[in-house]
Amino acid sequence: MISLKGLCKRYGDRTAVDDLSLEVRAGAVTGFLGPNGAGKSTTMRLVLGLDRPTAGTALIGGVPYHQLRNPLRTVGAMLDARALHPGRSGYAHLTALARSNGIARGRVAEVLERVGMAEGARRRAGALSLGMSQRLGIAAALLGDPAVLMFDEPVNGLDPEGVRWVRHLMRSLADEGRTVFVSSHLMSEMQLTADHLVVIGRGRLIMDAPLAEVIAGSALTAVAVRTPHADDLSARLSAAGVTVERLGENELVATGATIERVGDLAYEAGIRLHELRTREASLEQAYQELTAGSVEYATRGTGA
Ligand SMILES: Nc1ncnc2c1ncn2[C@@H]1O[C@H](COP(=O)(O)OP(=O)(O)OP(=O)(O)O)[C@@H](O)[C@H]1O
């Protein structure tokens, strides 16, 4: 588990992380979202002890990073896939990392196998494609078999096959009971990968909720109805304060009411329904609504 309490980071007069308190729990994939410059990378760096907070604490399993006895066995991270010595092979890199952290050498072959790199690992890191570098970075994160994993934009620059592979890996790591904290700009991908979402803007917490709740909370999530009495139902729903949009002769979409309420109103009026279902907003749409304020601010800020 990762716990942040009142976490703050200021660089001069710029506040990158602003009083962030939250818990990232084990056994789930938690997506970490926010517009550019929101403070995601800084937060991850603070958790990993790569930067010192101005105030507050970041704990991994209840302990600050610099007090961990076996850091690599407790938390694995990939922040920058290209941050490898270009002249060294992936295999040499992982072997050195294992040796300096008291991890059995045999583990190197295991993690390379898990990331599907049993072959490419003998090549110089500088000669690897971005996708292969990402896999190697993930292998390094997995080396100490840690319970907590953090990935900053792990699917950046990957082809669709690579993106799918990362998605399945995140899922299996969470299913093994690990804490998986992953930042991404790809909302469609996050919608498929994450169980829980943490959204920040301008360093502040905007949302910390299950994915399903974020989608359900979107103004664009609606109830779609098909009925041979669309006029009657439309009038009935409008009278009850529900916003109705007619799609076709027999179809309408209601917003501002749960599916249960729409069903009950139809039942009370004796209106037959042929279909009643929730039409979910995409995460992209929900995210746009949530972060509209912080993005606007950022745009104005840059232009000033
Ligand atoms: N070392 C630093 N010195 C000064 N300012 C910094 C430093 N690191 C980050 N910042 C500033 O802190 C803010 C947050 O940056 P951060 O990289 O954490 O955001 P992010 O959410 O990861 O953005 P992106 O999605 O673009 O990677 C930005 O305004 C950035 O310019």
The CATH homologous superfamily of the largest domain is named P-loop containing nucleotide triphosphate hydrolases
CATH architecture name of the largest domain: 3-Layer(aba) Sandwich
- Give the percentage of residues in beta strands: 25-35%
> Helix and strand string, N-terminal first?
EEEHEEHEHHHEHEHEEHEHEEHEH
So what's the CATH class of the largest domain?
Answer: Alpha Beta
Poorly predicted sequence stretches spanning 5 or more consecutive residues: 296-304
Assign an overall shape.
elongated
Question: Which structural class do the helices and strands define?
Answer: alpha/beta
**Biggest sheet, spatial arrangement of strands:** 6-7-8-3-9-10
Q: What is the typical, i.e. mean, pLDDT?
A: 90
Query: What is the helix content?
Result: 25-40%
Pfam families: ABC_tran
Family: Belongs to the ABC transporter superfamily.
Domain ABC transporter: 2-227
GO molecular function: ATP binding; ATP hydrolysis activity
